[in-house]
């Protein structure tokens, strides 16, 4: 029975493995035990007290060297994608009805932005443009060729 009692593990028998438990290093407690600079290195402003972010030691900081942003960007500005008449004549040589979806399908413009037709090039065939805006010169050239433009 005595052997059986010795084999039961008791709370007071538990202890960590050798070398598993280390004492923490108490810095700044005299020169004999990690004293003096206490892990801060030698000299320098950052060792004496904390310095704010972006401080360049008295040199004119980067955020003051760069120019200020002037003006503003309107959140309501419409960014138009432009298509010239020459491009229309190239993509649709037979003319006919052309919508924004047709231009997207041909890869002339991306979806999600309004489209504007500009007057660079010559309208050889009649285009019926739907859902696009047009410059005055583009409108004149398309109407001269027998076409029309509707913005809705």
Automatic annotation (TrEMBL):
Keywords: Ribonucleoprotein, Ribosomal protein, RNA-binding, rRNA-binding. Residues 82-149 form the Large ribosomal subunit protein uL15/eL18 domain. One of its GO terms (biological process) is translation. InterPro entries: Ribosomal_uL15, Ribosomal_uL15/eL18, Ribosomal_uL15/eL18_sf, Ribosomal_uL15_bac-type, Ribosomal_uL15_CS. Residues 1-50 are annotated as: Disordered. One of its GO terms (cellular component) is cytosolic large ribosomal subunit. Binds to the 23S rRNA. Part of the 50S ribosomal subunit. This is Large ribosomal subunit protein uL15. It comes from Bifidobacterium subtile. The lineage of its organism: Bacteria, Bacillati, Actinomycetota, Actinomycetes, Bifidobacteriales. The gene is rplO.
């Amino acid at each position: 029975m005595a052997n059986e009692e010795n084999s039961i593990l008791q709370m007071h028998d538990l202890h960590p493995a050798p070398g598993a438990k280390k004492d923490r290093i108490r810095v700044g407690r005299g020169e004999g035990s990690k004293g003096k600079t206490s892990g801060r290195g030698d000299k320098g402003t950052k060792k004496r007290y904390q310095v704010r972010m972006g401080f360049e030691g008295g040199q004119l900081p980067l955020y003051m060297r760069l120019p200020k942003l002037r003006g503003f960007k309107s959140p309501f500005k419409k960014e138009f994608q432009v298509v010239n008449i020459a491009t229309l004549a190239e993509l649709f040589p037979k003319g006919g009805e052309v919508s924004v979806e047709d231009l997207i399908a041909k890869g002339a413009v991306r979806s999600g932005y309004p489209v504007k037709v500009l007057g660079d090039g010559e309208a050889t065939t009649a285009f019926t443009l739907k859902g696009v805006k047009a410059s005055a010169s583009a409108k004149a050239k398309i109407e001269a060729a027998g076409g029309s433009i509707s913005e809705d």
